[in-house]
Design a protein that fits this description.
Elements: E1 10-12, H1 23-26, E2 31-46, E3 51-67, H2 72-82, E4 94-103, E5 108-116, H3 118-127
Antiparallel strand pairs: 1-3, 2-3, 2-4, 4-5
Keywords: Transferase
InterPro entries: AIG2-like_dom (IPR009288), GGCT-like (IPR013024), GGCT-like_sf (IPR036568)
Protein name: Gamma-glutamylcyclotransferase
Length: about 140
Amino acid sequence: MSESAERLPFFVYGTLRPGGRHHAWALRGRTVREDPARMAGLLLYRGPGYPYAVAGEGEVRGELVMPRSTEYDEVLRVLDELEEYRPGDPANVYERIAAEAFLLVGGVERAWVYLAAAPLTARLRAEGVLIPGGDWAKADR
């Protein structure tokens, strides 16, 4: 099975978190679990109504969500579309990568996470506004 086809949970850190505007239509009722988690080695920047995560010296807070097995392929398709991610496309807004997520109750799991693609990352590092503490839910928006 190729990495892009692995059925990993998703680490969500912005509008896909429970209570976020995209959670209700994209994830609610389609998951078997949603656990508070964090990812190290990331920074969170403000976007136009949603955040962008990029590699950096920090951590981002969010949730680890695992779709139901019967819903997994559809959730993957919906999230890739929402995040404007197409495997291998140089015009991607986000890239989907596998990384370690640390559950707040303990334990580590590999998960998919959407990070800002390289051109956007360069722009954010040059002129973006960091979200202190890496937690979109607590950010002054």
